[in-house]
Each structure stands twice: as C-alpha cells, then as structure tokens.
Fold:
Amino acid sequence: MIRTRALTKDFVVSRTRTVHAVRGISLDVEPGELVAVLGPNGAGKTTTLRMLTTLIQPTSGTAEVAGYDVVERPDRVRAAIGYVGQGGAGGAAQHVRDELVTQGEIYGLDRRTARARAGELLEALDLTEQADRKVESLSGGQKRRLDVAVGLVHEPSLLFLDEPSTGLDPHNRANLWEHILRMRTAAAEPRTIVLTTHYLDEADTFAERVIVVDGGQVIADDTADALKAELAGDLVTLRVPAEHVADLAAIAERAPGTRSVHVADDFGVRTVEIRTADGPGATPGLLRAADAAGLLVSRVDVARPTLDDVFLGLTGRSLRETGVDGAGPDEPADTPTATAAPTKKEVPA
Amino acid sequence: MSAATLTPATPTSARPQVRRSFVRDTRIVLLRELRPVARDPFSLLFGLIQPLVFLGLFGPLLVGSAGATLGSDVWLWFVPAVLAMTTLFGSSVTGSNLQLDISSGVHERMLVTPLSRSAQLVGRALKEMVPVLAQSAVVLLVMLPFGLRPNPLGAVLTLLQLAVLGIGVGALSYSLALAVRKQEWMFWVVQQTVLFPVMLLSGMLLPLETGPAWMRAVSTVNPLRYVVDSGRAAFAGDLASSAVAWGWVAAVVTAAVGLTVGVRAMVRSAD
Structure:
C-alpha cells in the first residue's frame, strides 16, 4: 500500500541554513495495516505524511502510495487516498452536510449519490443532528468527526490521519477512536490507516504497528509490545532515605538483568529507578541485597514499560518532555540526528 | 446499521477512473463559495458601508466644489466611480477568505483531493462577480431617488465590466494571500498600500485633469482609471466611445493577468 525508499525532505530556511526534516525513510506498509507514526514535534512525522499525500515533493528518494508514484502520478494518488489533516476540513460558514456533498462531488460522485453518501456518513459519525448547522457552531469533537467523514467520503482504501485527536479531551478522543476503528472495519477489506500522533497511549492502544521517528529517521518499527520488551524493559522504583541512595544505586547496578539505573528526585523524595529485563523477577533479589547492606527500602513499585520508555531507551530523551509542545505542529525544527543509544547509565553521586 | 451500507460495491482500485473536467471542478468550487452567500445574502451589505459613506459624505462635498464644472451631471460622474470603488474594496479583500481556509486546513483538504488546482483559483475568483453585481445594483437603486438617471444599457454594461474587473482583482487578492501565506499580516499591509494609490490614481474621487502631469502619466498604467472613465461614458449614454472600449480592455486584461498569476500561485501553494 505504501512503499518508500530513502525518502528525504530538506527545507531551505535561509541561504546559510537548511533543515533536513526527513533524512532517508524507507518504509513498507501492507494493505489493512493500522500504523502509528510516533515521535516528538519536529521529528519529521508530518513532513513525511505531507510527501505521501502529494502535498509536498520529496527532495530525494521515492514513494509509492496506493500503487502510484507520488511525484509521477499525484492525481492517481489523490484519487485513492483519504486525508485528515491537522487542521479542520470544514469551512466555518459552510453547512456540515454541504461539505460532505461537495467532497463527494469532488471525487466524481453525482449529486444524488453524493447526498446519499453524506447521509450515511453523518449517521455513522453521529452528526445527523448537526447536518444542517454551520461548521463553526460544532464542538471540537464534532468538528473532528466531520474531518474524518470528509476523509472517508470516497471510500479510500488508505486513510491518513495527521494527529487526529490533538486538542480533544479524553472523552472525545475515546469517542473519535471508536468511530475510526468502526469505520475501518466497515469497509469490505479493512482499510489501511496511517496516523501520526504524539499521544503515547493512543499509539499503544490502537496501533498494530508503531513506527518511531526521530530526527527525520525511523529509529524503531514493530508492534508496541515487541518494542517495549526489546527496547525498554520494566521499571522498578525503590524509595530509600537520602543517605542510602548511592549505596542502593550501586547494588542495583550489579544486579542481574539491570539495564540502567537512575536516581530521581521528586520534590525532595529520592528514589532509585532501575530499568531491568524482568521487574517482578528482579525485585526480591534487590530487596534482599538492600536488606543485607542495611538500606531501608520504604516503598517498591514495579511498572511495565510504556512507549515513552521505549523512546527514552532509544534516544535518551523523554517523548513527554520533547513532544508536548514545540515551535508548532511539526515545524521543521532541526532536531539533532539521533543515534540509537541502547542503554543509558547515569548514577549521579 | 449504517455501517453495512458503507461497504463499497467494488474495491476502490477497481472503480472506473473518474473523468475530470476543468469546468466541472470550477463549478464545484464556485458553488461551494457561493453557498454561504446565498444562505446569508445580507452579509453582502457589509461591503456597501464604505461606498455609501462616500456617496453620503463625499458626494455632497463634490456637488459643492465641482458642481460648477460638472453641473447637474455630478451623480453621473461620481456614481460609476463609487461602483468601481465597491468592486475594488470588496474584491481586494477576498484573499482573506482564502487565508482563513489556509490557516484552518480547508485549503489543504482541497489540495489533497483530485480537484484541479487551477479550478480552485478560478472558481473562487468567478464568485467575485456575485457580490460585485449585487452591491453595484444596490448602489444604483439607492441613488435613483437622488436624481441619478444613467443610460440603462450603459449601466448594465458597466456592471458587467465591473464583474470582469472583480474576477481579476479577486484573483490578484487570492494570489497575494497565497504569496504571503507564511506571514499572514503582510496581506493587509500590501492590500492597503496598493489600494489607496490605485484608487486615487484612477480619478475616482476628483478629476485627474486638475492634477499635475506626473499623476496623469502614472494613471495611464492604472487599469482602474480606464474602467472608471468607461463607466462615466456609459452612464452618460456614450456607449460607442473609445473610453468604453478601453474600459473593457482594462477589465479583461486585469482578469487575465489576475487568473494567470493566481493559478500559478495556487499550483505552488502546498510547500
């Protein structure tokens, strides 16, 4: 469904400065896959999506979408794909139904078919009551559902969603996802869906495949579970009095299975965080060793990894810190090219 | 369950390729642009505030100062200018609608569809005819009780000429919006900077004949000057005059240049 080879995109910002937003992405997406592209702002997610949707041309490399080259046959690609951009699809002064009918006509439906199709989508996306209202009067969640409806008018076999749930509250996000997943299976063959997100839980819960992008490159590509098991491991957090922190950290460093040790200071409460292959298995041994050394462990927590841990393991940075806000939605900010750092060891004295 | 009806009869790939036509695409864009106007025609009245202010507050001054030279024909001289002004003011700001669509995401949505890029510009520009014609008609009707008696055919032809001019000015306004899409505020700076010189150098408010030679020289490259002169001649019933012919040339050239520049800007508007 999608095939890219060494895809790059440079933005010339000024005579002396060129931003390499995408630095050689090679990807294959099979029909029916639900893929989340995850990464901080400026990672190149949106730039990649904009190339795949024919909005911008690659600087080098090739991309085939729905069987057609995006540079050679953008018309064919456009006819085949659906796209839900970061912004809204509905004109403020337009009526909800009219926008869907117009979109149908744009894709070649006659007016009657377009009207019927609009009616189906309005019902499927719970917008029937809003059908004859202006887009500007819709709530955030309703607007987003309209955007998805607009993207689906022509039954595309491939749907791109660029940060579909950004700005929605948790209730509306869940509701939107319910609709997206239902619309996916409503087609004869499951639709291929490619979405970008910086919501970790979203990629974790819904995507069958997660592509982690950073610095314009793919740094990981697998199922969420596989990424977590291979790249992050469990997190064991032990709380001890401040004077015991260094000793406990040293013990943890030597414990079998330990990948990294980090001392966290959470408003004066100091904890030792141990990244390990098997948290529940390692904890008893750690506690026995601490006890033998006379270290007073007052609290133990064992957490399964999140995709943020995966990102942290890969880049040494947290997606939560880098991802939440930046220059703007995927501005071509120049993030340094990340080299995959397998583990991170830091034990402040 | 509605989901069942969403099943396509044929897979997308097997669907026959839609035959695209520029005319059909343009019509889709034009009708979409007209829909909010048709639904709320009173929104057009906002565009009339400016010309009516000029008619009400500048017209009487003109009668007082130039009445001696223009005689009782002062409205035949001034109203065509106000119509041109309405066209200029209304159509030159229409790019801001496109700016809204660019910042909201509507423009991007259209760019990802197979809709022809040129049609996206031409359809929008053609829509400008509607407010121009509607607003001009209102101005004419308002002025009838004040003694305006234009040649009827001349008035109709002038309105049509202004509609053509409106397409050109609208297309240029869209071009500007596309050109400055990364610094939105620039739109108003440029629009305002261009608007007033174009207006004053058209002889719209005061006769250029009384101005210095350099102003008259500059005005010869101002298409609006020819349209204003054409309107005055046509209102006076001088339909076969060269002024009217030049007015058409100016309007058509403005439309052609505007559409050419606009289509180019639209094609390159995704980067």
Chain B has a mean pLDDT of 87. Residues 21-267 of chain B form one domain. Chain B has 13 helices and no strands. Chain B touches chain A through 38 residues (CB under 8 Å).
